[in-house]
Write the structure tokens for this entry.
Amino acid sequence: MNSEDIRGFFASREQLDMADYLVLDYYIECVGDIETALAHFCSEQSTAQWRRVGHDDEDFRPKYAAKVISLTVEGELSALSYPVKHSESGPVHACRVTIAHPHCNFGPKLPNLLSAVCGEGAFFTPGVPVVKLLDIKFPESYLMAFDGPKFGIEGIRDLLHAYDRPIFFGVVKPNIGLSPEHFAEIAFQSWIGGLDIAKDDEMLADVDWSSLVDRSHALGEARAKAERQTGEPKVYLANITDEVDRLIELHDIAVRNGANALLVNALPVGLSAVRMLARHTKVPLIGHFPFIAAFSRMEKYGVHSRVMTKLQRLAGLDSIIMPGFGSRMMTPEEEVKENIEECLQDFGHIKRSLPVPGGSDSALTLETVYRKVGSVDFGFVPGRGIFGHPMGPRAGATSIRQAWEAIEQGASLESWAVGRPELQVMVDGANRKKQEDVKK
Amino acid sequence: MNSEDIRGFFASREQLDMADYLVLDYYIECVGDIETALAHFCSEQSTAQWRRVGHDDEDFRPKYAAKVISLTVEGELSALSYPVKHSESGPVHACRVTIAHPHCNFGPKLPNLLSAVCGEGAFFTPGVPVVKLLDIKFPESYLMAFDGPKFGIEGIRDLLHAYDRPIFFGVVKPNIGLSPEHFAEIAFQSWIGGLDIAKDDEMLADVDWSSLVDRSHALGEARAKAERQTGEPKVYLANITDEVDRLIELHDIAVRNGANALLVNALPVGLSAVRMLARHTKVPLIGHFPFIAAFSRMEKYGVHSRVMTKLQRLAGLDSIIMPGFGSRMMTPEEEVKENIEECLQDFGHIKRSLPVPGGSDSALTLETVYRKVGSVDFGFVPGRGIFGHPMGPRAGATSIRQAWEAIEQGASLESWAVGRPELQVMVDGANRKKQEDVKK
């Protein structure tokens, strides 16, 4: 490209009608001339050839080109942050670049949006071997084409009559191998112990040794019994993750049998399938995060998890389970907080999703998670912290509610545990582990 | 886990009925004790808690646990290859590990398979911060549940009456912004010039300024005219990438109007949607690769592109467009060859897919690509190499066919170009560029 060609891919916000554009933030490392690389970066993701041969006065760029609207050169690097085979030579620069991408190029469709912002264009631009898509901002005109969550946080709270506190989920364990009857008995115990939502593991769906028909039937009955016994609404969260052409059928089966919320692995089925399901669903739809780490863990490469949280909310998930706090989840604390914020912040007419930062939780971690989230608008989702509790799942669930009481009362966990054996056994276990670690 | 717990996640192939298992190859970097990390790696991706509390004689591992069946410690590293926040301490080892994963845990379903092999388990294991899924091997019993491509390479060749040579695709350019009428005229010219398949860009789908209804109608007519004029079958490859609940409808519209192959962006719509479409389709289904680089470019992290090629073939794509040769595509040559091999090698009863290694091709690169592929069983897919040709798209297509004639005749491109102006202008352009580069 010559310098005039390059100019067609740069603009200021003032020159554009921003209602026509998505705003994309990227971190890039570019090789050689920065402006040339950025013009290619825009050209490759929009109109790579902007006129027909022999039509010298034609120019598709004003309407269809992606355009750089802001650039910050963070500095020159001695080498790319990651080794990538590529063809350009010259100095390497780390840049933050903001691009206005015309949404008329693809319309309000999730697969086409993904193709535009993290497809061949963005990741195969000459001179731009290292790319991370950091954020997407949508004009109201684009958001209006999406329904978003049908229930949102308020809908989930109304379902459970649970206000002014977190929502207590639990992943029934053993996650793989239980018969529907054993599964139902364990879930029942956890509901009696105080759990709001007993859920299928993200790996447990419709399998021949625990079909969704049988499991949702057994769980529907167990839920009704738990509701009678406790006088409280309870939720069975059934995992209907499956081939996309079975999702609607599995929704109908599970809901008919008594599942009153549904889990779907959002990225494996695809965000578009989530949107389809959200349109159809009669109960809250909750997403789990398999696959997200494969493209979001590298600090400077891939797609930021915030983008996926935003798109999952846009697609209509009422609640989003995400990699949470604690070093087991290998996600920086700031990133977890950004993902929580993506669920809660204003987003046009789109309802708020309940964020569920997950990862090896128990009564012992509740206060930390609550303090980090900074509000009661979150879901808390232990697995083994409830279902591996030494006194069993009922006690496991009770220990979580006791830990919440301690927070409400402003008491320390240690003091609140006195006379509460379910919590005491968790506190004792933690103290024992501390002592063992000291001995090592 | 204690040493007995750990033992439950190791086995030899001889101890297992391998028909019950997928075989997964991972590169991992683990921190601390290797066997402990690997036991967690298996446990997290299968039965994380393998007995109910209070049932000490219960053990779900023999049937449901993923198990290490082979381990090669490649060496100790001074640090992880990529910085990842994590909780373990101890020596860091690079390992190649082979895992037998029981497919009864999820069944022959692509979203559930993806959740199992590159989900929370694989990527959030304590002590395993760096993971790359390298390959999946399937037992025949699992493959039997999949139909694979309906047409395959032979079906595409029969459609075009094109044997013993590559299939010549071209991405109509300008890719974004053309009216259906102008698009049809350009495609027509390229067919007359010798192209087999004129295709929509992966970024051009059903948009208001070029609806699929209008475009497929215009292209269907142009194709019929080109077939009459040349006496050869031609293909219009229409991009129906869209929300998954519109794919079947768009298939029907495009095919009714005269599109005789369909393009879909496989990862953005989801592999499961591809499988659904492959079951329905009346014409060959061709996949494009947006999003693949986000998780496959890092040498030691994410998911190898080979896995996605294999899964796309399994899902039923008759042809797979993939990042090809040349430094613009930033993909090591060996990786491109592996992806081509994945399309062509024996895969149970699953038909072969036509590999289309793409990236900035033209008459000038055909021989190189052909020699690297090592057979005529590939598609060649220039964009600007045809539609940016100085003499126009008809000449651009002709230049590709002339380049193939040169190969068939064993002639050099330079000598074959004499008296063939379409090829000559490409050769002249390349020579001019070489001289300019020398001057620099």
